Amino acid sequence: MIIGVPKEIKDREFRVAITPGGAETLSHHGHRLLVESGAGVASGFADEQYVAAGATIVATAEEAWNEAEMVVKVKEPLSAEYRYLRSDLTLFTYLHLAAEAEVTRELLANRVTAIAYETVQAENGSLPLLTPMSEVAGRMAVQLGAHYLEIGQGGRGVLLGGVPGVRPASVVIIGGGTVGTNAAQIALGMGARVTLIDINIERLRYLDDVLHGRLTTMASNKRTIAEAVRRAEVLIGAVLLPGAKAPLLVTEEHVSTMAAGSVVIDVAVDQGGCIETVRPTSHSQPTYQRYGVIHYAVPNMPGAVPRTSTYALSNATLPYIQRLADLGVVPALVADRSLRQGLNTYRGEITHAAVAKALKLTHVDAESALAT
After folding, report:
1. What is the pTM (predicted TM-score) of this model?
2. I need a surface site. Which of 134, 139, 167, 334 has the fewest CB within 10 A?
């Protein structure tokens, strides 16, 4: 199979979809890789490393897209890339279509076979291709919260962990999944007071057992959230419904009760966000203020640490890319239910129920669509 790896063009998105090691594996399996020149530089991978791994360096994005049977990326196509979409192309990347109506329309209009990393789901319900970036984002959220609490960044001037005789900052995390758990680990390790809120009592019981430090777990309801948000100096939104738009759990009224100089970080922004005052920002302009509260809502947070993120992502995606290339896209999707869960659009139809529901569109079951 011919696999294209274009350079990412989203604002300050420095990750790349395949490492030279991944390129070498795919090349040894007989596949041809077309890597756009410079695609891996910001992640620390020179063009020469890809060439040594058996890949071909192409000068333009057009070559990486148009000559490929399957394009692997990190982020969804932007408007400048819509012209490359076509009916005989398979696209394998993060899509987050529940919050991307325009991208969805383009994929449908061009009848692209689009497989989303974030909806590939294992038999145990885990999301193997989303997990590594959720781990990165959860850990980053606390670093960012600590940074923006500094007075020079407009924050309250509070040290996250405090010092003897001075209380630490209050960190509130909405959601106890991968993002929330990783955020809690880092916040507790830095000495913060952490409140973790989730709807799943068994999950809270588990986290209470395995996390140590100044941790309070609370069952999610409107009053619990309102009271916790009011006391929060760093509020982290970490809610996920696979493939679906994130539920709105923190209202504008809640945010208005926070102290000036507090920090809101909504990791769920790429699925629409779970905090009402949040709108997507970028690495170039990452923050804004509402009610004197600093808001950070960059959808591609892990792009700021591309070396770590690229390795973590490629470790997870490579076996799936290899399966699609070795077996062929349709046979691989038919044979592998986990991979089939990732299919979001096929032959002009939405094939993921949660995406269709979020966008108020109809869908066709993936298994049925592939059988036609």
Report:
1. 0.93
2. 167
